[in-house]
Amino acid sequence: MFYDVFEQLCQYKGVSPARFSSDTGIGQSTISMWKKKGGTPTGGKLRDTANYFGVTVDYLLGESPFARCPGCGFEYNEDDLKENTAHRMRHDKWADAVSKFGFCWSYIERERVKADSRTRLEAGVLDESDAVDEYEQIFKALFSRSLEGSDYSLLHPPFDNYVAMLLNQESWQKATSKHGALNTLLKKYGTRPGIPNGTYFNPSDTPTQKESPPAEAEGSVLDEFAGELIAAYGDKPIGFDDDDIEDIAAYMKLVKERRERKKREEGK
Ligand SMILES: [Zn+2]
């Protein structure tokens, strides 16, 4: 029955049917019809409901085993064990990123925040400190998207550095200055190179990393190290901070180089 799927999606997203009603404008009476008479939405209501939960219309109608998780946006086949495991691992990585960076908004949350902030900015009636607040919300949304794009990499720059990288771009300077927010943002975050264009952080764009091995190699060294740590300590979270992570990455690079040199020497 449609209502069962609806109820599950509400639960997953952490909203009540009443909240769903006020967010989408779909009346409470419609919802109680779904519940009591086994009704199914059609047309615009069907599309709006699917968009609200970030799932496909087919999924909503129970015609597809492919669900898009309303939490992380991952699309997967619920009947497939491997895909379920991959999905769980994604949530584990996400949780690790949240504990390191303090937050990482879901697709639904960041799209809503971005849209709300843009509406308020475009209305053009904000004073400087309100405009700064709105831009910070937008930056948090973009940061969350960039972090997700990096597969929740713990090597992603923290929020403050990320903002400084965006403020290094002429387009963001223009946009924020239009609303009188640029000077305050510059004072608070400064600028730094690292994201030459767009809003996704790509480790190979960072000038200081140009001479280090490609990100993939570093990642695999870290993964290897993480594997060793887990073997040694069990899989309990360990409270590393930014500097520790950088030190570990640098150290692992040395270890890897040493190992490779040894391999080469032994091969002779
Ligand atoms: Zn998910």
Task: Describe the overall structure.
This protein is an all-alpha fold and 268 residues long. It folds into three domains: 63 residues, Orthogonal Bundle (434 Repressor (Amino-terminal Domain)), CATH 1.10.260.40; 128 residues, no CATH class; 53 residues. Helices cover 66% and strands 2% of the residues. The chain contains 13 helices and two strands. The protein has a two-stranded antiparallel ribbon with strand order 1-2. About 4% of the residues have low confidence. The structure holds zinc ion. Zinc ion binds next to helix 6.
Give the topology.
Blueprint lengths: L1 H12 L3 H8 L3 H10 L5 H11 L3 H4 L5 E3 L6 E3 L3 H21 L5 H17 L4 H22 L9 H9 L2 H9 L3 H8 L25 H19 L8 H26 L1
Antiparallel strand pairs: 1-2
The structure holds zinc ion (ZN).
End-to-end C-alpha gap: 69 Å
Order of strands across the main sheet: 1-2
Supply Rg: 23 Å
List the domain count as a whole number.
3
The small-molecule ligands in this entry are:
zinc ion
β-strand percent reads: under 5%
**Structural class of the secondary elements?**
mainly alpha
Number of helices: 13
> Can you tell me the residue ranges where pLDDT is under 50 for at least 5 consecutive residues?
209-218
Topology pattern, helix = H, strand = E: HHHHHEEHHHHHHHH
How confident is the prediction overall: mean pLDDT? 83
Biggest β-sheet strands, sense, barrel: 2 strands, antiparallel
Number of strands: 2
Percent helix: 55-70%
Morphology: flat
